[in-house]
Amino acid sequence: MAAELVEAKNMVMSFRVSDLQMLLGFVGRSKSGLKHELVTRALQLVQFDCSPEVFKKIKELYETRYAKKGTEAISQAPPQPITSHRAPESLSIHPSYDHGVSGPRTSLSTPNIDYPSLYGKHVNGLSRLPPKVITKPEVRLVKLPFYDVVDELLKPTELVAQNNEKLQDSPCVFVLSPRQVDLIKNSRDLHPGTKSVQVVLRICYTDTSCPQEDQYPPNVAVKVNHNYCSVPGYYPSNKPGVEPKRPCRPINLTNLMYLSSASNRVTVTWGNYGKSYSVGLYLVRQRTSSELLQRLKTIGVKHPELCKTLVREKLRLDPDSEIATTGVRVSLICPLVKMRLTVPCRAETCAHLQCFDAVFYLQMNEKKPTWTCPVCDKPALYDQLIIDGLLSKILSECKDADEIEFLADGSWCPIKAEKERSSSPVCPILVLGSQDMMAKLPPPSSTVSSENGKPGPDVVDLTLDSSSSSSSSSDEDEEEEEEERPPQKRRCFEKGLLSAC
């Protein structure tokens, strides 16, 4: 291919203005401009759109011109003689060429050719330019933990509008191999009517900068053969003014497909509103949360000593900090379900020691995949999850506490609940009938009769003088003040116990 390109460029460099104009007019490009502009345009044509017809036209113009000139044409031949001529059919067709229809043209500002060295006396420089292969970057989809890709049936392909209508149809036809059919038929049932090995359709934005998440276009509908496939609907929104969200997941097409050698036709109906989308077809094996949990227990357990080292690193004294951290509290309750942890888990990218329960975390993401840490609200993808071996050991040893404290040396101690600490008596308990209790009781009132226990009659001493009356009045005042004061708390007698405070 490189030899044919060099040969075609050498022939173009030997053309006159009339030959260049005929070549450019043949492919529908502009024929106006100076000779060096025409040469530049023709070289671009050879470099990027050299189809068999274009090469044949260049050869025809070259042979016609030099057949008329005779020996004069031979003397004006390019410095590198043409050694052989291959048949035009041997050239590989550029992807932009399609049966004589000119594809998208490269703009004149493309800096892929050193034009000063190509034009003029530096014709030999053409042979030193390596052929450039233009490869368009492909759209990539993010890896889904619950789907293991077995085969790629259709690479992500852009949905192209065929007209100016807002609603577009994009068909796709493919055939399953006998091996793929056997895989689907012999796979186990996740639940009635759903096989674990499936053919799924994934749709995403046409963006090659990074792996793309599943994203549906507006008004999307999928038809498999002669029936429409169910597409996930919208989540209802309870908040006023908030639009409902749609879970964009792989669409299972297995139930509507021909599991034989017959061809399957999939038609995607989508709304053309400016954004570009791509679709891909995959043969996948769907996993359950219990399978992912077992895989995590196999390959994702972090050794207790490594976890203890991480604790010491977090509690290491920072010389630039004025506050020394002597310990950090970690709850043994899962923040997701408010229950005691069974499989303590967190992401390696998280900066905290607090864990959440891997069992409930995987179950929640199986129903509604968000992969967000419930502690710090940062991404916690499945490939980043680890099981804390140290906290697993603590959970088996500490049964009577819901919270622990890690110390600076990596050790830990349980923290009792506040209710347990407050339930311990602060004052001694006195038992009714004991001598201590009798000592605490007030003496019997002097106004109580020893005979029948009833208060005796009031006796007034008329011999008291005014001083005694004044003192009695002062006593009455004191009694009135005591009546105005709030009553003192009564002693509580319950079940034979008396609080000493």
TrEMBL record:
* Keywords on record: DNA-binding, Isopeptide bond, Ligase, Metal-binding, Nucleus, Transcription, Transcription regulation, Transferase, Ubl conjugation, Ubl conjugation pathway, Zinc, Zinc-finger
Instruction: Tell me the segments the record calls region Disordered.
Output: 440-501
Tell me yes or no: is Repeat among this UniProt entry's keywords: no
| GO BP of this protein | protein sumoylation; regulation of transcription by RNA polymerase II
Question: Which spans are transmembrane here?
Answer: none
Q: Which Pfam families match?
A: PINIT, SAP, zf-MIZ
- Limits of the SP-RING-type domain: 319-400
SMART domains in the record: SAP
Give me the reactions it catalyses: S-ubiquitinyl-[E2 ubiquitin-conjugating enzyme]-L-cysteine + [acceptor protein]-L-lysine = [E2 ubiquitin-conjugating enzyme]-L-cysteine + N(6)-ubiquitinyl-[acceptor protein]-L-lysine
Q: Where is the composition biased (Basic and acidic residues)?
A: 485-494
Q: Which GO terms describe its cellular component?
A: chromatin; nucleus
Subcellular location(s) of the protein: Nucleus
Ranges of residues in domain SAP: 12-46
Protein family: Belongs to the PIAS family.
Can you say what this protein is called? RING-type E3 ubiquitin transferase
Identify the species of origin.
Answer: Xenopus tropicalis (Western clawed frog)
Q: Source taxonomy lineage? A: Eukaryota, Metazoa, Chordata, Craniata, Vertebrata
